[in-house]
């Protein structure tokens, strides 16, 4: 079964109202071609789970600025003024999560765990509504896993089976979201034959990947 | 003394507190400038929260790499011996106590070691990014801040009034006026910039200030 599909078919798998995890850190490592296609398709009411909301004209920030999202779960929204504006006028919900907590919630979502204990956020507003658990005399917050319907992953290289390599700091959340969603779509800069990637160099196994789209270099 | 000169004093003093072999994370803004003053005689590994160790200087114009940016989204380079990883690994390094020193800015910092640097309710809510994890996880937390706000209010308080980033985690505060240590929830002036008097510093500090018995001149 070939996992390589057209950009149109890939984008059509993201339905309005779904929970979408998107890779990237301030647009570095975001699958921009798929993001742009979602905007063309006019998807609405997405719940976006990502590190940040990037910039109004770059990365996944474009989805926020083009009114595609009803909710954002992120660690940082300061670089996209549209996010703050929509949060303040009530047209979009924003849940801010410390970056390490967000990464770990996604990681354990993909790892089948029920939660983890972190010292991050103890004694701050992040503690509100959460169980505080003492372990070895220290206070920790119980943080729960997070999962999504669709992951939009940006890879540098993919083989036709879906084994992935990321490049430099474009890796960030990409390998984590690839394990935490029901459907995983990869935008790869280069697609190579099976066997061309040394098994020692594979960063995300093909078993996590459902579809591959050819991206730009 | 203008703001630029004040910031230069702060980042130069902090650069001097770094030791050979340290793993250091520099926050966005003023802390980033510390990198310009690190001595060539020591080997420091800079950690970038977006996923690498071995952060290097800004590349020459035209040599930027779209896949290599710092936590502020700016093009950077890496030094020999660098490595990349994902965000969960990055925060394993940060939260797990594998970062020796983190240098962060402040909206407010207090004598108990509490820090507020991520939001002003109803004004700016950029989000905490990695700051909450860094302050809790790094072995040493150093705050780089001007002594007062533009309006002249002290940024060092008896108790922070803004939403906290973390409780009782700050170890050192460096301003243009002096070098402070937080010890047993007390603010101790360890070094003084000779351009200021102790009276001036006390006036610019909204917390009880203890002057160290062995007060030294702040050299930067």
TrEMBL record, chain A:
Keyword Transferase assigned: yes
Classification via Pfam families: CoA_trans (PF01144)
Q: Give the EC number(s) listed in the UniProt record.
A: 2.8.3.9
Task: Tell me the domain of life.
Answer: Bacteria
Q: Which UniProt keywords apply?
A: Transferase
- Report the source organism: Halanaerobium saccharolyticum subsp. saccharolyticum DSM 6643
Q: Which GO terms describe its molecular function?
A: butyrate-acetoacetate CoA-transferase activity
Its name, as the record gives it, is Butyrate-acetoacetate CoA-transferase subunit A
Name the SMART domains on file.
CoA_trans
UniProtKB/TrEMBL annotation, chain B:
The lineage's top-level taxon is: Bacteria
Give the similarity note: Belongs to the 3-oxoacid CoA-transferase subunit B family.
| Listed Gene3D superfamilies | Glutaconate Coenzyme A-transferase
What top-level class of enzyme does the UniProt entry assign? Answer: transferase
Q: Name one Pfam family in it.
A: CoA_trans
Species this protein is from: Halanaerobium saccharolyticum subsp. saccharolyticum DSM 6643
- Report the GO molecular function annotations: butyrate-acetoacetate CoA-transferase activity
Return the SMART domains for the record: CoA_trans (SM00882)
Q: Any idea of its EC number?
A: 2.8.3.9
Protein name in UniProt: Butyrate-acetoacetate CoA-transferase subunit B
Q: Which UniProt keywords apply?
A: Transferase
